[in-house]
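Supplementary Text 2. Reproducibility record for the structural model of the 154-residue chain.

All settings were left at their defaults, and a single model was retained for analysis rather than an ensemble. We include the record here because the model underlies the residue-level annotations in Supplementary Table 4.
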Amino acid sequence: MIANVHESRKNYGGCGMNLTKADIENIMIRWSEAWNRHDLDEVMDLFHEEALFENWTGGSARGKETLRRAWTPWFENHGGFQFVTEQFIIVEDEQKVIWQWHLAWPSMEKGCAGKPERRRGVDIIRFQDGKVVEKITYSKTTIEIDGRPVNLSP
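Retained model, structure tokens:
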């Protein structure tokens, strides 16, 4: 079990205190585990009330409850997904993480539905008051489906 980050900090949360590199690393491990358990409640617990999310298709959501509503159908309908962390780059003084990942899941692309898909991407994640306040997602436009490269069209 990951140590509770809240226990490691005096007056943690809401005080404008910066997270340490170890705090950020622990949060990101908790983050990865929550996503791969498909635990929306745990994922949302890590977000700031005023969070901004921009996804790889250009859509966005502002505010924790708006984000929860946007993600609920995705979590309910995409149970086969797994995010595999390739690396975390933690920039402690900026309270930021660059998370390089690949997503493995049954494809939803037209003509390839259900085949194994691998999609690579990067998230820029920024923290405020110990919570994720911004998550900007970028994804490659060439993915692998059933082991073959497929170019996504706009």
